[in-house]
Design brief:
Length: 470
């Protein structure tokens, strides 16, 4: 099928406990070229400022998947030129300077014995001659070669469309990796704020315990909360560094290159369009679908080429030049010939070739129809994910506000002696959970928009529109 042969799965949700990568996951990443790149140069001491559009631009230049697809396109072009050369005239020039001595016995020249005549020598005297000619040949009619060329031409078109589709895959890979770093950075910020709050609470309760204003158990609870916040921050920073390494790999940055992200992705509502409109746009814009259609045409040409083996082949060849014993005694020489070739018996080879080509054509057509359905499926799934996660973002924003109010009330109740510090700790945990939920829901929503941009085609343009509210 005229596709890249690789897919990019949706990155993992932001999870502070997910700090390890299984060997199988590492192997999958190492085998997928869209998760690799050709790093550009060596790292420098400057900190690179990287926006989402900058990252996409670098990915479109250095990502290994796109590099390999470009090379595959060059190979397809070479194959088309090779098929074209088979139906174009072939012209060559040849010059010859020969020195010979022939054996008459070898070629069977002899005379019967004649009295008084010594007979012929066994070999000729040495002699030389010159021959210079320009030769040409051309196929006047060869159905197989002409359809082979049509096949390779369609294959080259499919390869060019594959390059466009690979650009969409790169945009998706870079976009998800970039958003993963943004989400991890947001979580680090939340963890730092939680740690600062826990440290301040621990300090205040330690003073109150010394002053015998609060029981020691409240101080112990505050210490547990502070230590938990410290470990959460360590995990968050570890995840951030790993996600930054992943992004650097995708866009071709050296492993030691420092960079910061300048596109703090915020909530931008999803554009207002229906799933039917999005599906129609995808069927018009997806390069892999157009590539699959070109592959079907190539398979149709292959069937015609195999059938063309049964037809007569017409050709012509000619040469023109001069020959003689030396340049001063050259004679004009030429040859013109036409040929007709018709296969009479091939032992069933041609029929086998035809059936194989027809089977391949049936497979290509089935893959094309399947891809059409899969594109519509991808669009609708991405829209459902985007709509659900957008609703989740709105709920998470409301929950953040409610959790902050609950924390304020719990602190006031504790300060007035109405409750113990356990209620304050629970309120802190509710605030932390609300912050995590908002980060995860916003990340899921933005990933769904990137996936929708990929599903609809022209991903680099649509990503810009989706994240700038156009």
């Amino acid at each position: 099928m005229a596709q890249s042969g690789y897919s990019i799965s949706t990155p993992r949700p932001i999870n502070p406990a997910a700090n390890t990568t299984t060997p199988s996951a590492q192997a999958a990443q190492s085998q997928n070229p869209y998760l690799g790149s050709t790093p550009s140069g060596a790292a420098n001491s400057q900190t690179l400022q990287l926006s989402l559009q900058d990252a996409i631009a670098r990915g479109l230049h250095y990502n290994l998947g796109l590099v390999e697809t470009n090379q595959a396109g060059a190979t397809a072009r070479a194959q088309r030129l090779r098929a074209l050369s088979a139906i174009l005239p072939q012209i060559s020039a040849r010059g010859e300077q020969a020195f010979e001595r022939l054996s008459l016995k070898e070629i069977g020249i002899k005379l019967p014995p004649i009295p008084g005549f010594p007979g012929l020598p066994s070999a000729t005297d040495p002699f030389g001659y010159q021959d210079a000619r320009v030769s040409g040949s051309m196929s006047l009619y060869n159905s197989e070669l002409r359809n082979r060329y049509a096949q390779q031409k369609n294959a080259e078109e499919a390869a060019a469309l594959n390059i466009k589709d690979s650009r969409d895959i790169v945009v998706y890979a870079v976009g998800t990796a970039y958003l993963q770093v943004v989400g991890s950075a947001a979580r680090v910020g939340t963890a730092e704020a939680q740690l600062a709050s826990s440290q301040e609470a621990d300090r205040q309760l330690a003073d109150q315990v010394k002053s015998e204003v609060s029981p020691e158990i409240d101080s112990l609870r505050a210490q547990v909360q502070r230590q938990t916040a410290e470990q959460s921050l360590v995990n968050a920073r570890n995840s951030l560094e790993k996600d930054k390494l992943t992004l650097g790999r995708v866009i071709g940055l050296p492993a030691d290159q420092k960079f910061t992200l300048t596109s703090g992705v915020s909530y931008v509502p999803l554009p207002d369009f229906t799933k039917e409109l999005a599906g129609d746009e995808a069927l018009r814009s997806r390069a892999d679908l157009a590539s699959a259609a070109a592959t079907v045409k190539a398979a149709e040409s292959a069937v015609r080429a195999e059938k063309g083996q049964r037809l007569p082949v017409l050709g012509v060849s000619a040469n023109y030049g001069a020959g003689g014993v030396n340049p001063g005694h050259m004679d004009q020489l030429y040859t013109v010939s036409g040929t007709v070739s018709v296969p009479i018996y091939t032992g069933g080879r041609i029929q086998a070739d035809i059936e194989e080509a027809q089977a391949d054509l049936a497979r290509r057509r089935s893959e094309y129809e399947d891809l059409k359905g899969r594109i519509v499926y991808d669009v609708r799934v991405a829209m459902l994910d985007a709509q659900a996660s957008e609703s989740g973002v709105k709920v998470a924003l409301s929950n953040q506000s409610l959790a902050a109010k609950a924390l304020t009330q719990a602190e006031d109740r504790y300060a007035n002696g109405v409750t113990n510090y356990l209620e304050v700790i629970q309120a802190h945990e509710a605030v932390a959970s609300a912050g995590e939920n908002y980060i995860e829901s916003l990340y899921s929503f933005n990933i769904a928009k990137v996936a929708l941009a990929r599903a609809m085609g022209l991903a680099d343009k649509r990503v810009q529109d989706f994240f700038q509210g156009k």
